[in-house]
Write a structure and sequence with these properties.
The chain is mainly β. It is built from four helices and 17 strands. The strands form two sheets. The protein has a twelve-stranded antiparallel beta barrel with strand order 1-2-3-5-6-7-8-10-11-14-15-17. It has a three-stranded antiparallel beta sheet with strand order 9-12-13, with no helix packed on it. The longest helix is centred in the first third of the chain and has 21 residues.
Length: 350
């Protein structure tokens, strides 16, 4: 019990320090469903937990995305400063100056994630995700721009992992898991900023979402291989806006340096590389497709996990840092551009 309290206290201090350093740079993206990757793999690694184990993972994640601006329907108030002010003369001047007449959105994202996993029965693991979002959207048209932001707790989600097959019951080297997922509409999804509700800035979506998938791990003498696929179905959200369904596919390899290079000093360092693929349907706003949404993207994601040497116990806490690098934006629909996604987290086993 003392070891558990010590680990949790130290993890909290590290997480607060990382979050404090990260917060001043950018607030967070409004899109709560457009990320790629496998959060269960990030939080727990390529290993099934043993019965009775509890694991916590605290993460800071940030990203930036640009897209065509979402059309504001008459049922909603215009954004602050968003009234029509220019005529043909102003439009021509902007075009000559090299500014696009098409309105754009810039979504800059920051999210604090807390994951808690528990294995109450052999083969069965439950994972709870509680996010806190810092959301900002900048709408740009010609020389004019406005900023809209809203922060708060996002939508709480619960995932289940069930080991369907493993090559042996004790310390399996190969196993396959089934996955199921449910997201609840707990985050605020009708927040007003200066009297205006922007769909992309809400901390929550207002929808019940669910999904299912498979994951597999194979351990080798020099490291481990991991892969997963997942399909997510998004329900009708608030403000007559529905995010498109999502398909995710991931592959990863890890190579513990201590074992690979036969060096005890390198034992805490575990680098790896992921490929993260995402396909998404177009979002629907007021019954019409949002043309600058959906499509496919592929990320290459180098990461490093470092086991912290200052703690007691069989499973020490570890830090994880990763950068998702888009290999192309050409497969996305309409005008969309995604920048690299970074994340830093700490895993605390109990």
């Amino acid at each position: 019990m003392r070891t558990m309290r010590t680990n949790l206290r130290a993890a909290a201090l590290v997480f607060v320090a990382v979050a404090a350093l990260a917060m001043p740079f950018r607030p967070a993206l409004a899109c709560s469903v457009c990320l790629a990757g496998d959060p269960i793999y990030d939080a727990e690694g390529a290993s099934a937990q043993e019965k009775g184990e509890i694991n916590a993972y605290f993460e800071v994640r940030g990203w930036t995305k640009r897209s065509g601006a979402l059309v504001h329907h008459g049922a909603e108030e215009p954004p602050p400063g968003g009234e029509e002010t220019g005529g043909a003369e102003g439009a021509g001047a902007e075009e000559e100056a090299g500014h696009s007449e098409e309105p754009r959105e810039k979504n800059r994202g920051r999210r604090l994630n807390a994951y808690f996993s528990w294995t109450p029965l052999d083969r069965l693991t439950l994972t709870l995700n509680v996010p806190y979002n810092f959301n900002k959207v900048t709408e740009e048209e010609g020389h004019e721009s406005i900023e809209i932001d809203a922060n708060g707790f996002g939508d709480v989600a619960l995932a289940t992992s069930l080991v369907l097959w493993r090559d042996r019951d004790v310390l399996p080297s190969t196993f396959i898991e089934g996955r199921a997922f449910l997201k609840t509409p707990t985050g605020k999804s009708r927040v007003r900023t200066d009297g205006f509700r922007d769909k992309h800035v809400q901390p929550g979506t207002g929808s019940w979402d669910y999904g299912f998938g498979l994951a597999g791990t194979h351990r080798l003498e020099w490291g481990s291989l991991y892969s997963s696929v997942f399909y997510r179905i998004n329900g009708d959200g608030s403000l007559d806006y529905t995010y498109g369904d999502v398909f995710l596919a991931n592959a990863a390899v890890t190579v513990p340096l201590g074992h690979a290079l036969k060096s005890a000093n390198l034992t805490p360092f575990i680098p790896g590389l992921e490929l993260n693929y995402r396909w998404a349907e177009k979002d629907v706003s007021h019954g019409e497709d949002y043309e600058d949404s959906g499509g496919s993207i592929l990320y290459a994601t180098p990461f490093l996990r470092v086991q912290l040497p200052w703690f007691e116990g069989r499973r020490p806490p570890s830090l994880r840092a990763a950068v998702q690098i888009p290999l192309t934006n050409a497969w996305l629909h309409g005008y969309q551009h995604e920048d690299p996604v970074w994340s830093v987290g700490i895993q605390v086993p109990f």
